[in-house]
Amino acid sequence: MILGLGIDLCDIRRIGRVIDVFGERFLNRVFTPQERVTAERRYGQTRINTYAKRWAAKEACAKALGTGFSQNVFHSQIGVVNLLTGQPTLLLTNGAKKRLQLIETQANVLNSVIVLSLTDEYPYAQAQVMIEGYPSSMI
Length: 139
Description:
The chain is α+β, with helices and mostly antiparallel strands. 44% of the residues lie in helices and 32% in strands. Mg(2+) binds at residues 8, 59. Residues 4-102 form the 4'-phosphopantetheinyl transferase domain.
């Protein structure tokens, strides 16, 4: 059962300009430490593309949660992580995690899975998030 679906398209150039203007203040406020480590291992345009894809993932996730960035859901609570296979997924904390738990409870789901797809083709980055769950009665 699909519990939530979100998509976002962002302009990589815009993210680059924001980083140029606000630098560390923006990066620390929006991205998790792990996301920053991942992006900072890259150079030049690839570094900016990495941040832009993660920005799009956060936006898409907030849409899938049904809140946007309100109701105690913030950018820094949604982090892109990679499974051992390299596949990206999301790790939610604090308000974002509580929102997911509320969605699970309302849908009578014990656990959900977040599916994330990322892509970029300069000057755009795109992310799609789907939150899947199975009713408790099926487990």
